[in-house]
Design goal:
By secondary structure, this protein is an alpha+beta fold. It has a single domain (about 20-265), classed as Gcn5-related N-acetyltransferase (GNAT) (Aminopeptidase), CATH 3.40.630. It has eight helices and eleven strands. The strands form two sheets. Strands 1, 3, 4, 5, 6, 7, 8, 9 and 11 form a nine-stranded mixed beta sheet that branches. Strands 2-10 form a two-stranded antiparallel ribbon. The termini are far apart. Mean pLDDT is about 85; it is low at about 10-15.
């Protein structure tokens, strides 16, 4: 099953004053009702989904960020997370691997998910400040790539410079270990041999407007087959200073979101 982090959403029109509340829980604590709701959201955002693959992917993660509507309590999004302790070429490291993420389109632009993810990363970093903390993700959507590129300057691949050789070697090792021959080292992408889910057409198109962003152009150039479910492998070195900047930016964006929505309307 796909293990990418793609901020895709459902095809409902944005609604002002609908707000999300996020909480991070253990995957093992999920009841069947929440699992059913999460799979329903997943199926509305992706084509060629499988409940068996969905459950298998959940079983491989320890944490899940749940996004509920603050008023109704309905589940409107989720993101699964795996945390792994390992030893790399540079020594002990904690690797955070992101699973698929779905957010109802009516709630796009809110930053509760990003803030919850940053809080989790801060917790992990503070537990062992001396240990390298890395974010390993696959993405078939430019929105996720933008999140990494904007928040973590020490990452691969990036549009603004050549790959850091140490990070690239670590990424190739992680991706090869996890995906074997499905990982194309030369292109830095994962091409699945079997049927695999892909983002539904029209949910997050690469328009001329978004293509003006150099990071978006870079993503499309590096992963031209993203619409077919091919995923770009990325790895970021997560530092406390980066997390502090990201938390500040996401908090400001969350506070300004209602004003922006009001202005649009």
């Amino acid at each position: 099953m796909s293990t990418s982090l793609s901020f895709t959403g459902l095809a409902t029109a944005p609604q002002f004053r609908r707000t999300l509340v996020a909480r991070t829980v253990g995957v093992a604590s999920l009841d069947i009702r929440t699992r059913d709701q999460a799979f329903a959201l997943f199926g509305q955002a992706y084509e060629d989904v499988s409940r068996e693959r969905f459950e298998r992917d959940l079983a491989g993660k320890q944490h899940i960020i749940l996004l509920h509507d603050r008023g109704s309590g309905a589940l409107k999004g989720f993101s699964t997370v795996q945390v792994r302790e390992m030893t790399g070429a540079a020594g002990p490291m904690t690797v955070v691997f992101s699973g698929d993420t779905v957010i109802d389109r009516a709630y796009w632009g809110q930053k509760q998910l990003q803030l919850a993810f940053v809080r989790l990363m801060v917790t992990l970093k503070l537990r062992a400040p001396w240990r390298t903390l890395s974010w390993f993700l696959l993405t078939k959507g430019y929105r996720t790539y933008l999140l990494m590129a904007n928040a973590f300057p020490h990452a691969v691949p990036r549009a603004d410079g050549p790959d850091d050789p140490v990070l690239r070697a670590a990424l190739d090792e992680l991706a090869t270990e996890r995906f074997g021959g499905q990982y194309d080292r030369a292109r830095g992408v994962v091409r699945y041999r079997d049927a695999h889910e892909r983002v539904r057409e029209g949910l997050a198109p690469v328009t001329d407007v978004v293509r003006d962003n150099p990071h978006v152009r870079f993503f499309v150039e590096r992963n031209p087959d993203h619409a077919s479910g091919v995923e770009l492998a990325c790895l970021a070195d997560v530092r406390l200073a980066d997390l502090a900047r990201a938390a500040t930016r996401f908090t400001v964006a969350r506070l300004l979101h209602p004003l922006r929505e009001s202005t649009r309307r």
